[in-house]
Amino acid sequence: MKNKLDIAVVPVAGLGTRMLPATKSIPKEMLPIVDRPVIQYVVDEIYHAGFKKIIFITHSSKNAIGEHFNEDSKIKQDLAKRINKSQLKDIKNISNKKIDLVYINQEEALGLGHAIKCAEKEVEKNPFAVVLPDRVADGSATDLKRSNLAKLRRHFMNTRNNCLLLAKIPKNEVSKFGIIKPKKSFQNGFVEIEDIVEKPKFNKAPSDLAAVGRYIFTPDIFEYIPPKPLNKSKEIELTHAIQLMIRDGHKLNGLNSDTKYFDCGDKLGYFESFISFALKDKSLGKDYKRIVKIFSK
């Protein structure tokens, strides 16, 4: 295994069925939160955490994502004539980041585990992060250069242990997430994980601590991704690979997230993210708040 942790794998090939009909022709990752698409917030988080390369596991219908991050000088020239300097700076910042973007097609939607397996040749023997694109950190409430994914990256560099980000959730929502079974109590924000269960029933959940879509793995994870779905699952789950790794003696640590993560693949979660970011917007926050008050009467 190589020492550098510079790669983040972002699986964006999903069909976004929870957000239909909006996602029939628009990738869910391109839905806007105020004035930026969801995927922009995710890429910003990865960039500020210190990663140098993003591997998008994508689908032929998701060309809009690549087009969003491509540098198109003609478009910039046209926009420069129509928008103000602040807006033009925002447009330039999309493609000006010093980070490599790679796109790999997932021919069939066979699950998150399969999507990660598609990145194996590009990742090679390097450790890497997995960042789910429908989970957006409330970046206005934390320092993305020091918290959450950045802190997870530092922890891996110090310990070389597989690790993931956690959040405490209401017990009635455990069936929506991968839920961990902690081995010991938390120390300095971290806990050793004994097991993880994919979307358990309320009465069978080992805890109320959920994985929020930020993981860091050694390349050993590829060996544990099953070639076909296990149990009654219809997809090749990343959770199953993690379970096999733990049972084979690989350590997995959990870190409490510093801020809330919004599930933007869910209608309520997406709405919550929009309201949160809108109310904190520097230029229009007061107007958004006034409008929300009007419609909440």
As a percent range, the share of strand residues is 15-25%
Query: Nearest-angstrom radius of gyration?
Result: 19 Å
Number of strands: 13
CATH level-four homologous superfamily name:
Spore Coat Polysaccharide Biosynthesis Protein SpsA, Chain A
Short description:
This protein has helices at 38-48, 63-69, 73-80, 85-96, 112-117, 120-123, 149-159, 221-224, 238-247, 267-279, 285-295, and strands spanning 7-11, 32-33, 36-37, 53-58, 100-105, 128-131, 135-137, 162-168, 178-182, 190-198, 209-217, 252-256, 261-263.
List keywords for this structure.
297 residues, alpha/beta, Spore Coat Polysaccharide Biosynthesis Protein SpsA, Chain A, two-stranded antiparallel ribbon, 11 helices
Describe the structure.
By secondary structure, the protein is of the alpha/beta class. The chain has one domain (7-295): Spore Coat Polysaccharide Biosynthesis Protein SpsA, Chain A (Alpha-Beta Complex). The chain is 33% helix and 22% strand. The chain is built from 11 helices and 13 strands. β9 (178-182) and β10 form a beta hairpin. The protein is globular and about 55 Å long. The protein starts with 6 loop residues before the first strand and ends with a helix. 37% of the residues are buried. The model has no long low-confidence stretch (mean pLDDT 85).
